[in-house]
Write a structure and sequence with these properties.
The structure is a single chain. By secondary structure, this protein is α/β, with parallel strands linked by helices. 24% of the residues lie in helices and 25% in strands. The strands form 4 sheets. Strands 1, 2, 14, 15, 16, 19 and 20 form a 7-stranded mixed beta sheet that branches. Strands 4, 5, 6, 7, 8, 9 and 22 form a 7-stranded antiparallel beta sheet that branches. The chain has a 6-stranded mixed beta sheet with strand order 11-12-13-17-18-21, with helices on both faces. A hairpin with a 2-residue loop joins strand 11 and strand 12. Helix 9 packs parallel to helix 10. The longest helix has 15 residues. It is globular, with a radius of gyration of 22 Å.
């Protein structure tokens, strides 16, 4: 469910795509938080009948889909109740080959624009994973300004039970036994503001029942608590950056963080992408520039390749000079199988220039070397996100559907240690990353990967980690931030 986005447009031509001001990357961005309410299914109007909406989706796929030979023929749109189901049937052959793991889909224009502009979302404001051994839900991260953190629920807390009132609380084990993993999402209810749940929480403070109400909040892409910091050890300064998502509001924060790294003389950096499911290409390109002080405008950061019939749109993105950039000597990227798309683009693009002075710490990444464009049927609030391009680095390395670990010989396996805050040098993955930057050896490499969302689980040398929860039909925010509720 991880996404990698170029501009969204209302027309069917890429020329308009590059010039549009209405898309998620080119829109006018409010300086304040955006309040989002769920977008209802549009009332059928002229141009918005089910038949017309399905026809629009089919036209987008026919014109732009990266794998035109892997689109099913003869699919009857009348046999599908929804546009989403129809899209699933059309791209089923590509999915069977592992090329399109639900990367092509229908979404809401309004909801997606709000998220990519400022991280606007609604819910409890934490990310959850399922610990199958303990049959518990564990909180991996909580967001500032959201209900969960305000209620004292933060990283490492476990949810033991969920209810709508004190009389119907059900344990996670019983929910899972009756309904499977989707039962947990169902028990938490819709992400509408005002929805209230009782959560039985276990953490360092003990076990307690917490009543919590969902609300709108703006997701901060770089946490004020731990998102960007200097870690001083052994007489050296290391930069630490945790980027939650590649959204437009991250851009000024990235510039500020790297300006501080530059002022502090930092050249060794830990970049923590462990929960970053992707986002906008433009923010990934800015991050490349911020890591490219010693690169020139003739050196390629990344390559974008469309299908043969759209090859005129192929492009090479070169490094650009930005005043806040640093010249990294070593970079340790932290990843998991929630690390995808734009995160993988940055990692892959830096490898030709750093070689063995770069590593991947943690576990294998998701494996998404393709990205989407968005084409809009504005009257219906329909945006079709279609896989339309593949990415490669300056060396032409692409097709990392099995994740990036097999491409990085000096990778280092490490656990996601929920007993410590993110950015804490005692946390296992941060510790391994700093050890690499300091020249110390790694004892265990990330093992061989398998294709799919379980890329790092079960692989030799891969630490066992809780599995991020993703609902069957995720919101725009949940696609980019696996486990968000």
């Amino acid at each position: 469910m991880r996404d990698f986005k170029r501009r969204s447009v209302a027309s069917m031509t890429l020329a308009a795509l590059m010039l549009a001001s209405c898309g998620s990357e080119g829109q006018n961005i409010s300086t304040g938080p955006i309040t989002v309410t769920p977008t209802p299914t549009p009332t059928p109007t002229s141009g918005c009948s089910p038949t017309e909406r399905k026809a629009f989706a089919k036209a987008v796929i026919d014109e732009w889909y990266l794998f035109p030979n892997d689109v099913a023929s003869g699919v009857n749109p009348a046999s599908h109740a929804t546009v989403g189901s129809y899209i699933d049937a059309l791209v089923a052959p590509a999915r069977a080959l592992g090329k399109d793991r639900y990367f092509t889909y229908q979404t809401s224009i309004a909801e997606e624009n709000a998220f990519y502009a400022s991280g606007s979302s609604a819910g409890l404001g934490f990310r959850m994973a399922y610990d199958s051994a303990a049959q518990q839900i564990v909180i991996t991260e909580s967001y500032e300004g959201a209900p969960a953190l305000a209620a004292g629920i933060d990283r490492g807390a476990r949810i033991l039970a969920i209810g709508t009132n004190s009389g119907n609380i059900r344990t996670i084990a019983s929910i899972f036994a009756a309904e499977g993993i989707d039962g947990v999402s169902n028990a938490l209810g819709p992400s509408d503001p005002g929805v209230t749940r009782i959560l039985r929480i276990s953490d360092a403070a003990g076990t307690r029942d917490v009543t919590i109400t969902k609300a709108n909040y703006a997701l901060d892409p770089i946490s004020d608590r731990y998102g960007a910091k200097i870690i001083s050890e052994g007489g050296r300064n290391y930069g630490y950056l945790n980027l939650r998502s590649f959204i437009s509001s991250a851009d000024p924060q990235l510039r500020t963080a790297f300006a501080n790294f530059r002022a502090q003389g930092v050249t060794d950096v830990v970049i923590d992408f462990r929960y970053n499911g992707g986002g906008l290409v433009s923010t990934a390109e800015l991050m490349g520039d911020l890591l490219g002080r010693n690169r020139t405008s003739s050196e390629i950061f990344s390559q974008t390749n469309f299908r043969p019939s759209k090859s005129v749109e192929n492009e090479r993105r070169f490094f650009a000079t930005v005043p806040e950039s640093i010249a990294p000597t070593r970079i340790a990227f932290i990843g998991t199988d929630s690390t995808a798309s734009a995160s993988e683009l940055v990692i892959n693009s830096m490898q030709p220039y750093l070689g063995t002075n770069m590593t991947l710490v943690g576990s294998n990444t998701y494996g998404k070397p393709v990205g989407q464009i968005g084409l809009d049927k504005a009257a219906c609030d329909d945006r079709i996100r279609v896989v339309a391009f593949a990415t490669a680095n300056a060396s032409g390395a692409a097709d990392y559907y099995s994740g990036l670990a097999p491409r990085i010989a000096n990778s280092c396996a490490a656990s996601d240690d929920l007993t410590f805050p993110l950015g804490d040098p005692r946390e296992a993955s941060v510790r391994a990353a700093i050890d690499f930057l300091a020249g110390r050896s790694c004892t265990t490499r990330i093992g061989a990967a398998t294709i799919g969302a379980t890329a790092s689980r079960g692989a030799v040398g891969a630490p066992v980690a809780p599995e991020m929860l993703v609902p069957e039909r995720p919101s725009a925010a949940q696609r980019e931030l696996p486990g968000l509720f």
